[in-house]
Amino acid sequence: MAENYLHSVHVIKEACNGCVGCVKVCPTEAIRVRQGKAEIVATRCIDCGECIRRCPEHALVAKADALSGLQGYKYNVALATPSLYAQFNGNVPREAVWQGLKELGFDEIFDLSAASDYISAEIAQYLRQHAQGRKPLISSACPAVLRLIQVKFPELIKQVIPVLAPGEAAAVYKRSEVCQRMNLPREEVGIWFVTPCPAKGTNIHQSVDVKHSEVNGSISISSIFAQLSVAVAKIGDECKKQDKITTGSSYGIGWGAGGGEIKAAGITNALSVNGVREVYELLEQVSMNKMPDVDYVECYMCAGGCIGGPFAAENRFVAQKNLDKRIRRMQRLEPTDREAAMALNMNCPGFPTSEEYVKVLEPRPMMQLDDDITVAIKKLGEMEKVLTHLPGLDCGACGAPNCQSLAEDIVRGAAHETDCIFILKANVRKFAQGMIELATQIPLVNEHDDKNLAEKGSDKDETK
Description:
Elements: E1 9-11, H1 21-25, E2 31-34, E3 37-40, H2 50-54, E4 60-62, E5 75-80, H3 82-85, H4 94-103, E6 108-111, H5 112-129, E7 137-138, H6 143-152, H7 166-182, E8 189-195, H8 198-205, E9 217-220, H9 221-235, H10 250-253, H11 260-265, E10 270-274, H12 276-287, E11 296-300, H13 316-331, H14 338-343, H15 373-389, H16 403-412, H17 421-441, H18 447-463
Parallel strand pairs: 5-6, 5-8, 7-11, 8-9, 10-11
Antiparallel strand pairs: 1-4, 2-3
Helix pairs in contact: 4-9, 5-7, 15-16
């Protein structure tokens, strides 16, 4: 089954020391340590990147596309994210960042904050039209959250709002617009997401929320930041005259950090939650229907929102400061009314709505012991029996995150009961006791007999 699921996070075996730190922080129990090295269970990994942040040896990394991929297309468009702007001081003009991206090889830039404005309006409209029904509705913006819901909370799928993420909507719009304007076939246009997050890249190649992604690849912010910073510094305030670039409002830019989505959509009865543990706990409470009086929850797996992604180059607190500064500067030039400010920047004729492109999430089985239901039920019984023998301490010393996971691995044939250090210790003690009892049953020679035996052996050697 593992080959059916894609994930970008992988282990550098040479760097891993088997410390099990990653095992304990993974929200979907997707990591095991076997024979001293971490292994990722593909069917469970959601590419949240928490293991990357926590690994002291930097043995866990995520794959992303390289700039060399641009050579496969005649015309390349970069989707510049709000989190990318947050890597630079708030006084740095966006025009300088756009020009810097062009110097890296992109032909055109699309400011993703413009798409965020459109999606914010769509979210607000959806909430108005679906005031009834189970609440709260859950944001669909973070693909790692969507995968977490698939794996751990499939009962919440119906509460996920069926609205495209801004990046996917922007890709649909730009591919159509560029092909028509440039008279190019679709396959010659490359759409690239400049991402702070490995889950975004995985979602491009195996989408969970869109029928077919129009994004060709993802370029991590950290991989291009050094080059881009040099280019932006050279450009400075003397930006070359830019081609017409549709930009978003300060509200669209605000999507780069936690709480920005709610503010842009104008939702008052809502919660913004970010961070792996916090999102997990929130979804647990929503699953138990303890928050029916909340209309909407904005969830991001990265602490701080997208600015805290594993692929971000800047510290998230510095990035938050940069983003807030940029937003304040933009607000001085905008109407004070939110909807009026956003309307001034919504200049993308034919911008797509989600209905045609979004797809419903499907549950993703995390623990499937066997394809045959009869065999699976039998193995479940075996698993429960094994679990009664385990100590229930969930210490992680066995290389699995908890005793239940170890029991599952044992039934699958991927582990042994003696992987549990407590069972191993008990077995060693039992073996040692058996050796002692055996020793008492064997007659021992005394020192005199031992000396005679040694002398006889010596005489035999001399005769030879």
